[in-house]
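In keeping with the milestone schedule agreed at the kick-off meeting, the structural modelling team has produced records for the first pair of proteins. Each record is given below as a sequence line and a structure-token line. The laboratory manager (R.T.) confirmed that both were archived under the project's standard naming scheme.
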Amino acid sequence: QVHLVESGGGLVQPGGSLILSCRPSGNIFDIYVMGWYRQVPGKGRESVASITSLGDTNYADSVKGRFTISRDNLKNTVSLQMNSLKSEDTAVYYCTAKTMIDLVTKSYWGQGTQVTVSE
């Protein structure tokens, strides 16, 4: 069963930086977009950033200017560079990859990695 694997989470002080990485455990074909979501207890999963195979990016307003998403199309990996971290960024971060085959979209998810921003 192919799934995504995140890494890089941890504890960081406010204003600090962290890099999250994501890779598939096996082959996933026809990925057209990869991205990151985050979730805190009691709230729904929030889209943080995404990037298409062509390099087009999209960011949530709350992270724009602080986070940078990038991907390697050959390896099907995606990274999230997080700078100027705030306590509000504390959440479980999930990697996602979306495929579209025969006009049907399918989403793959990772298990999640905890990011805690605190003194």
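The second protein of the pair:
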Amino acid sequence: QVQLVESGGGLVQAGGSLRLSCTASGSISSISVMGWYRQAPGKQRELVATITGSTNYADSVKGRFTISRDNAKNTVYLQMNGLKPEDTALYYCNAEVITTTGWRSRIYWGQGTQVTVSS
């Protein structure tokens, strides 16, 4: 089994910064795409950013958020600057993983970490 665990969420004032991290562990052979998604109460989950050999960002976070990864640690990060109240959501990490006993990749999700931005 593969497990993804996020950390780094919290309560910050508007304009502040947070750095989220997510580490994958378990029977991992390789990881291709890693990404961050978020979901606010009453709203659907939306893409924030993804990273492979290149990066992809939602328009709403471009210029404010930066995604990066450490392949040796199976870890993906999200540096969040200039936070706004509308960024408040539960942030989820996901990864496309091939396990040590598998032939095909599967998508795994973390448990989520709460980010709350106050006015």
